[in-house]
Design brief:
The complex is a heterodimer of chains A (about 425) and B (about 100).
Chain A lengths: L18 H17 L5 H5 L20 E9 L8 E4 L2 E5 L7 H17 L5 E5 L3 H12 L3 E6 L24 H23 L10 E10 L18 H4 L23 E2 L11 E10 L1 H14 L3 E4 L15 E4 L5 H4 L6 E10 L7 E5 L2 E6 L2 E6 L20 H17 L6
Parallel strand pairs in A: 3-10, 4-5, 4-10, 5-9, 6-12
Antiparallel strand pairs in A: 1-11, 2-3, 6-8, 7-8, 11-14, 12-13, 13-14
Chain B lengths: L18 H6 L4 H11 L10 H14 L13 H5 L17
Helix pairs in contact in B: 2-3
Classes of the chains: A alpha/beta (about 425), B mainly alpha (about 100).
C-alpha cells in the first residue's frame, strides 16, 4: 500500500471491546443464526457504523485501453510434477496450474527445485518464462544453480500477463476426484510457501505485490447456496473425460484460512453499494509491470541467462548443454509436449486507465473491477452464472469486446444506483 | 483471421513472418505440418487434414520468400521429414521508390 493514498474507511473495532465480549458475541451469533438463518449474524449484532466512503470508478466502454485474453492451463488431476527422461536429459515438469499459477508459483517452484537438487547438478535449463518459469528460475538460483531460461517470449508477451493477477490459489486448479487427497496436501504446502514468499515483495517501491480492500456484493444473502444455471450437462469427468459441473472442481482454501485474512460482512448502515449484501476482505494483487520487471532484474542480477528459442518437439532438448531441464510451458505444453490432459479455460480482462488513488476492487453479478497499478481491470468472470464451468474447454484466445462492455455496464449501473455516488 | 491478413499478427498473436523463419529454419517440414495439425487453429485444434496443413506450410514458405519448387510439396510425413524449412534472408530493396 505504499505510494498509494488510502481514503477508504478501515475496519472499525468497537472501542473498549474486550476479548471476552468478542467471545460472547460469537457464541451469541451462533445461537441467533440457528433461530433466524436469513438474518446475517454480523448484521444483527454489529452496531450501526458510518457508511464507508468510496469514490466510484469511472467505468465506461470508451475508456478501454486494452483487452487481454488468456487460456488457463487446467488439468483435472492438478499440475504436472513428474520426471521424464528425454535422451540423456532429465526433464522435471512444472505446468498446468489452471487459474492458480500466479498464486501457487513460488510454492510449486520450491517443490520442483527440491527434487532437482537431488541430482547434484549445478546447471539447470528452465523452459518458459511465464510466472511459473520465472519463479522456478529464481528459486533454482536461490538454491545455488546456474540457470538459463529458454523461452519463446518474455513476460510482456507471455500468457501469464494476460491473467487476472490476484490471490486465487484454488481457482480451477484441479477436480477433487481425479486429483485425490494427496494433491490437497501438496496444494496446501505450495499455497503456504507462496504466501510466505509473497510477503517478501510487499511494501516495495512500485507495489509489485500489494493488498487492496475488496468488496464482494450480492443481491442474495451469502448463506444461500449458489445455484448454477442449468445447462443440460450430464455425467461427470469420470464418465465423459471433461468436467460437467462446478461441484467437481476442488476447493482447498479452508486449509489455509489461519493465514489468509477473513472476509467480514458489512452492516447495512456501512454498505456504500446498492447491492443489499456486502462483504469486505483484503485481496493480494500482483501488478504485472512492476512485479515482472523486478523478477527479471533479480534473475539477471543473480547471473541468469535468457535464450530466446522456440522448441517444436521434446527431442530438441537433447541439443541443450544442460542435463537438467525444468519444463514450465503453461498452456503451450498441450502442443509442445503433446499433453492432451490440458483443458483450456478462457479468461478475458479489459483495462481502463490506472486509478492508483482508488485502491479497491469489487465483485458483483459475475463482473469485477480491481484497481491495479497498471490499470483498472474489469473482468466478466461469470456474467452468465455458469460458476466454475464458465469457459471450460474454450480456447478462443481473441478479445470479445462485447463481453467486456457487458461487465462494465453491470458495474457502472451499480455505481449509478449506489449511495456512494450521491454527493 | 487470428494472424491478420498480412500475417503480421498482433501483440498477443505471433506474426507468421520474420520470427517464424528464425523459429523454424532447419527444422523438418514434417514437424511444422505436425504442429499446425496438432495445435492450430487455436480454438479448434486437430481439425485440419494433412493436405490442408501441408498447403499452409507451402503458403508460409512462399510468404516468407522461398522460391517456388517445380513440384508440389509431398503430403506424407516421411517425405516431409527429409525436407527442411529454409533459412531465408531479406534481399536488399532495389525498388526505385525506396
Amino acid at each position: 500500500m505504499t505510494n498509494r493514498n488510502r481514503n477508504i474507511g478501515r475496519r472499525h473495532l468497537v472501542a473498549g471491546a474486550s476479548a471476552c465480549s468478542l467471545v460472547g458475541a460469537l457464541a451469541g451469533s451462533r445461537l441467533l443464526h440457528a433461530q433466524t438463518p436469513s438474518v446475517s449474524p454480523t448484521q444483527a449484532l454489529t452496531p450501526q457504523k458510518p457508511r464507508i466512503r468510496l469514490q466510484p470508478f469511472d467505468l465506461r466502454a470508451d475508456q478501454i485501453t486494452d483487452i487481454k485474453v488468456c487460456l488457463r492451463p487446467f488439468r483435472p488431476m492438478g499440475p504436472r510434477f513428474d520426471v521424464e527422461h528425454v535422451g540423456s536429459k532429465l526433464v522435471f515438469h512444472n505446468y498446468g496450474h489452471g487459474g492458480s499459477g500466479w498464486s501457487l508459483s513460488w510454492g510449486s517452484a520450491s517443490l520442483v527445485v527440491e527434487k532437482v537438487s537431488t541430482t547434484l547438478q549445478r546447471k539447470v535449463a528452465v523452459i518458459g518464462c511465464g510466472i511459473i518459469g520465472l519463479t522456478t528460475a529464481l528459486t533454482a538460483q536461490r538454491a545455488g544453480f546456474d540457470v538459463t531460461i529458454y523461452t519463446k517470449d518474455l513476460l510482456p508477451r507471455t500468457r501469464s500477463v494476460r491473467a487476472n493477477g490476484s490471490w486465487t490459489p484454488d481457482s480451477r486448479v484441479s477436480l477433487t476426484a481425479p486429483a485425490g487427497p494427496g494433491f490437497a496436501d501438496l496444494w496446501e504446502k505450495m499455497a503456504r510457501i507462496s504466501w510466505a514468499t509473497y510477503r517478501d515483495y510487499l511494501g516495495l517501491p512500485g507495489n509489485p505485490v500489494e493488498f487492496i480492500e475488496h468488496f464482494v456484493l450480492s443481491d442474495r444473502p451469502f448463506n444461500t447456496p449458489h445455484e448454477e444455471s442449468p445447462d443440460g450437462r450430464t455425467g461427470d469427468y469420470a464418465s465423459t473425460g471433461m468436467p460437467q459441473h462446478g461441484t467437481e472442481f476442488a476447493r482447498y482454501s479452508d486449509r489455509i484460512k489461519d493465514i489468509v485474512p477473513a472476509a467480514e460482512e458489512l452492516h447495512p448502515s456501512e454498505n456504500p453499494f446498492a447491492a443489499p449484501y456486502a462483504k469486505r476482505n483484503t485481496l493480494m494483487l500482483y501488478n504485472f509491470a512492476s512485479y515482472g520487471h523486478l523478477l527479471m532484474s533479480e534473475f539477471f542480477q543473480a547471473g541468469g541467462h535468457v535464450v530466446i528459442r522456440e522448441f517444436h518437439d521434446p527431442s530438441e532438448l537433447t541439443s541443450l548443454p544442460e542435463k537438467i531441464i525444468i519444463n514450465c510451458p503453461g498452456y503451450a505444453a498441450r502442443d509442445w509436449w503433446n499433453d492432451k490432459s490440458l483443458i483450456p479455460v478462457r479468461g478475458q480482462t479489459a483495462w481502463l486507465p490506472p486509478r492508483p488513488d482508488l485502491p479497491y476492487g469489487l465483485h458483483y453479478q459475475g463482473a469485477s473491477a480491481v484497481s491495479k497499478t497498471d490499470g483498472l481491470m474489469v473482468q466478466a468472470y461469470d456474467l452468465n452464472n455458469e460458476g466454475e464451468m464458465g469457459s471450460v474447454g474454450n480456447s478462443f484466445e481473441h478479445p470479445d469486446r462485447s463481453e467486456s462492455e457487458r461487465a462494465i455496464k453491470v458495474l457502472a449501473d451499480l455505481f449509478a444506483r449506489s449511495p456512494l455516488s450521491e454527493g | 483471421m487470428c494472424h491478420g491478413a498480412d500475417l503480421s499478427g498482433n501483440f498477443q498473436t505471433p506474426s507468421l513472418k520474420g520470427r517464424l523463419v528464425a523459429s523454424w529454419a532447419g527444422t523438418p517440414l514434417s514437424r511444422l505440418t505436425g504442429y499446425i495439425q496438432r495445435a492450430m487453429p487455436l480454438m479448434a485444434p486437430g481439425t485440419l487434414s494433412p493436405e490442408d496443413a501441408t498447403t499452409l506450410v507451402a503458403f508460409l514458405m512462399r510468404e516468407n520468400g522461398a522460391s517456388p519448387a517445380k513440384t508440389a510439396l509431398p503430403i506424407t510425413e516421411k517425405r516431409q521429414a527429409s525436407l527442411k524449412f529454409p533459412a531465408l534472408t531479406i534481399q536488399p530493396d532495389t525498388s526505385p521508390s525506396k
